Amino acid sequence: MKRHIIVFIFIAPFFLSMLGCATIVSGTKQTVSFQSQPEGATVTVDGEVMGKTPVTVSIKKQENPMLTFEKEGYQPIKTNMSTSLNGWFWGNIVIGGFFGSTTDAVSGSMHEYAPDSYFVTLTPLEGTDVGQQDKVKAYVIANNIEIREALLNRDVMDPALGGLFELLQVPPTEISSTTTILSNLAAANDTSVKFADAIINRYFK
Q1: CB 111, CB 30: distance < 8 Å
Q2: Would residue 127 count as lying in a domain?
C-alpha cells in the first residue's frame, strides 16, 4: 500500500504539470495580420475592434470567431476565421488525459488560426467616388492570375489585360510597349499586391 502511495506521489506532479499542455506551450493568444485594399478598414473579431488595416495584433484563441472588415464607402466583408486543432492538444490528450484536454478547451488554446494572415479587397458602394489609383490596384489584385497569363502570352486581346489598359488609359499606339513594361513589372513582383503597387508607382507617381 505504501509503495502505491509513493508511486502516486511521484507520478501525480508529472501529470499535473502537463495539464493544459497546449496552453503552456503555445499560449492562449496568437499573432494574426490583417490587410485590405484599400487600406484603413476597421477590423473587428467577434465585435472587438482590432484596429485599422494594415494591422498585426495578438488575439485570443477561440473556435471560428467572426471577422469583419469595414470602411466607409465600401461594402463590409464578414467571414469566420478558420481554425485548426493545435498539435499540442493531441499530445496533451496522450500525456495529460481528459483533464489536460479540458483545460485547453476552456482556455481556447486547443485552437489555432490557420491562416494567420488575411487580405481582402473591398468593393466600393454604388455612387462612391473611388480614386483611379485605388481602382487600378483593386483591379490588378482581383485579376492578377489572368493578367499575368495574358502578359506571358502577349495576348493583348485578353479581357483582363484589356481592362487594365483601359484603367491606365493606354492609347492604341502604346499597347505593345505597355505590354513589355507590365511584363517586366510582373516578373519582378511575385505577389498580386507587389505587382499592383509597382504599376501604381510606374504610372501614377
Answers
A1: no
A2: no
